[in-house]
Amino acid sequence: MKHGLIYSAVPLLFGFFIFLSSQKMVGQNPILVKDINPGPIGSATDNHPHLQIDDVIYFVGDILGKRDLYSIKNGNIEFITQICSSSCNLHEIYFLEFQKKLFFIKRFDNNVIQIWSTNGTMSGTAMVLEYKGFFKNFVVGNNNKMYLGLTNGTNYKDETYISDGSTTGTYKLHTNVRLGSINEAFGAPIKYGNGIAFANITNDTLKLFTYNDENLNLINAIKVDSESSITGLKSINGDNIVTLIHSDKALSSSLYRYDYANKKISKELSLPFTRQEYPYLKDYKKDSLILFYHTGGHFLLTTNPLQISNITNYSDASFNLSKMYYTNENNVVYLTKDDKATINMESKLVVFSGAPDQIKVFEVVDSNTPSLIGHGNYAFYGTDDPIFKSGTITMIDLINFSKKQVFSFNQTFSSNQLNLLGLLGTKLYFFANLDQTYGKELYYVETGIPSSLKTPTEGTKYNYKVICNGNYFKILSDTELIHPLNVQIFDISGRLVTNKKVHLNTEFYVGELSKGIYFIQMIDHNNNFINTLPIIIP
Predict the structure, then answer these.
(1) Tens of pLDDT along 317-346?
(2) Dihedrals φ, ψ of 40, to 5°?
(3) Has residue 246 got a pLDDT over 50?
(4) Any domain includes 118
(5) pLDDT of residue 319
(6) Domain housing 520
(7) DSSP label at residue 435
(8) DSSP letter (8 states) at residue 65
């Protein structure tokens, strides 16, 4: 591809207020949406799986031990389906975003699973696959297909399925191939090339695999320390793969890099660790990663070749970074905790903007169970104190690094933790127990986000252009959109060749496309057409 090519064209939620004489609230009054798990059984649930896809929030309610899936859209809450009976644990509930829908697992029998999809409505919910066996994981590839890792319930062999999201388009690819882990902290598969990449360790050998659509390839292997396990797998600069490995026997963590240019794997870094204090490998922009190391600082990894630089010297251990971490195109936001705290966990909210001198640390927060989510240029964190039965919700503006308390409460709720779910418009939805009984309730509170923020429905008013830079494209515009665009790329015959979710002014990978003329069609998060632009890949 040639660099620098430019192509352009012009184109009330129901509820009520809650008033309790014992409450002392600061900020906006919360609006009750639904008592989501009344009773002592429901109150035992301290976490509710949830996922926001554009303008829909999906969450699981727990009523008398049942797990029910709900959605919130346009201020309305809708029951979708029961996921499993009381025998289903919360750690067995899995969500995946694919084709702007939620894909999830149903399980009502120990040996049978069902994979379903939904658009947020009961009528738009359907089963994709019923499988006699066990679910391991699923992941979406760069080819706009879903890969499923399953275990056969009869012979207990690992199997891989591929799916276009439909029942007829879901079928088995290979047997005896383990598709990595479901958990990012244990090396979940990643988008790569025209499909996915994943890794396994067998006989003290790290093996890197790719699926090029339906074709399985072993791209390389290397010997590693005994008793090693994969705890991080990321792509960097599109083609290179970085793998983080822990060895309990060697008490060390090692960083390996697969160099696409010479097709080799090499060890780049080794760090000591103590059990239960493992490093985390997280994404940060297209050409860099961050390695969070609990006792020796946090490292910024850039390429190519791989460069490692220490960006902080915090001795604080990090919370579960799969939940306490948010990144947009400019910032990384995460929570740390003080291991020396004796009662509550004193946590810091850290905002990192790309260099050691671009770190903002907000004041210590006392909380046993903090909650952190992000949306566009805003981050929200919630705290609670089970002893004094109080808590806060705070908003961080990631442009000017200011903070604003959205909501605080005292002597109002039990020891159930506060969970932030997502932001719809200017309303922040969360779970809490504000009625001093059992269980949890679903609320929203107004955040006061400036109304001048442009929304995707205004997108057709603005100019757009596409810049081609090697294997990457970037869509530029004179506006800012809160939600990412759904970008569909068609070839000259009108055939859809790939589908990507893209933020404005952020590069996205198109190296899987061959030479020719293509058309980029942009769709907003409400499924409204915005624009179509021609592109040429020489």
Answers:
(1) 444 444 577 887 778 887 766 555 444 456
(2) -65, -30
(3) yes
(4) no
(5) 42
(6) 456-537
(7) S
(8) T
